[in-house]
Design brief:
Layout: H1 2-8, E1 11-13, H2 18-23, H3 30-44, E2 47-54, H4 65-81, E3 87-89, H5 93-101, E4 105-111, H6 124-129, E5 132-135, H7 160-172, E6 175-176, H8 183-192, H9 216-224, E7 229-231, H10 235-238, H11 247-261, E8 266-268, H12 274-280, H13 309-317, H14 322-340
Parallel strand pairs: 1-2, 2-4, 3-4, 4-5, 5-6, 7-8
Helix pairs in contact: 1-13, 3-4, 5-14, 11-13
Length: about 350
């Protein structure tokens, strides 16, 4: 039965911006708000391994980016310390295995675009000491390290500081995330990388032409490093037509990544945005879109982590074998994290 398969497997979500919603509350509420609002959803969805990106809104950039980065990292530590019976903030594979063995959700900290770092690469070891184990270096636009995918037309590669970040992350045992990076930036990273890289939340451009999705060549190259491409659930990255915002369309993207990169190199990077944006965005901003993407549009049933069992159901209906599904919904990410997190060069 699919329910048994989903329950017994390790389910990994490599991109949930819930820290944005939790950090928007007063610090004294961080642990309790997570427990009341997010923990039940994670449990219902069967999530065992949750990557927590640290994303910094434009209102904090540039002057307040590092301060807000540290505040969000502190929020992650606080919610973990306040819910020790249910979660554990992990920095390596041994800690992840320990958390899973105790029935706790393993949390892993990530930086999304790293605006708090800017070009000060010497701060990367500081952030590593605070528990960060995954990082990307651009979002939609330009940073001091690289261009995001919204700037593809520039043909820009990594800056000198960006190259240093790749090397420093490998030295520290951090995993580089190519999601949001420009096409030329992804190419540059793959030229430099000597260890596996991953895409924490990127779908297939062959099925939906958008700069945020990965080309087949990029998918193959990430897989060739030993990394994992985690498919984004955001509806507008799956299809042009809202009529195709379906779980089956999501599985089409998963199937495509499998066909191009192999069954050992695909995972789930849901990027659940609706609840987070409703929590942190004022009513004045309803109808907001970015680069033609409506972040509130969701696949029915997959607006939040509680819907993740639907993905297992759909994979079964599409003919995936049990052992393949176990890899897709978390096994591949767990393997990568066991091998790479905290392993210094």
């Amino acid at each position: 039965m699919s329910a048994d398969l989903h329950r017994d497997a390790v389910v990994a979500d490599t991109h949930n911006d819930l820290l944005m919603a939790v950090t928007a509350r007063p610090p004294r509420q961080w642990a309790s708000f997570f427990r009341e609002r997010w923990l039940p959803q994670l449990r219902e969805g069967g999530v065992d391994l949750q990557v927590l990106p640290v994303f910094i809104d434009d209102q904090y950039r540039p002057e307040g980016a590092l301060r807000q980065t540290l505040r969000m990292i502190e929020c992650a530590h606080t919610l973990a310390e306040g819910n020790q019976d249910a979660v554990r903030l992990c920095t390596d594979g041994t800690q992840i295995d320990g958390a899973l063995g105790e029935g706790r959700i393993a949390l892993v900290l990530a930086l999304e675009s790293a605006p708090g770092l800017d070009a000060d690469v010497e701060l990367l070891p500081t952030l590593h000491r605070l528990g960060v184990r995954v990082a990307s270096i651009a979002h939609w636009g330009r940073t001091a390290l690289a261009d995001g995918s919204g700037e593809d037309a520039t043909g820009s590669r990594l800056t000198t500081a960006g190259v240093e970040v790749v090397r420093e992350m490998e030295r520290l045992g951090m995993i580089f995330d190519v999601s949001h990076l420009s096409a030329s930036g992804v190419e540059h990273v793959l030229e430099l990388a000597t260890r596996p890289v991953m895409a924490t939340h990127s779908s297939a451009r062959a099925l939906r032409e958008h700069h945020r999705n990965l080309t087949d060549d990029q998918i193959r190259a990430v897989a060739a490093t030993g990394g994992v491409v985690c498919v984004n659930f955001l509806a507008a990255f799956l299809a042009d037509d809202p009529a195709d915002y379906t779980v089956d369309r999501l599985v089409d993207h998963i199937e495509h990544v499998v066909s191009v990169g192999g069954i050992d190199h695909v995972g789930l990077g849901p990027d659940f945005m609706r609840e987070v944006m409703n929590d942190v965005t004022p009513p004045c901003c309803e109808g907001f879109s970015y680069s033609g993407v409506d972040p509130l549009a969701a696949v029915p049933g997959l607006a939040g982590p509680s819907g993740l069992p639907l993905v297992t159901d759909a994979l079964l209906k599409h003919g995936f074998a049990d052992e393949e599904i176990v890899k897709i919904i978390g096994g591949n990410v767990l393997r990568l994290f066991r091998a790479e997190l905290g392993r210094p060069a």
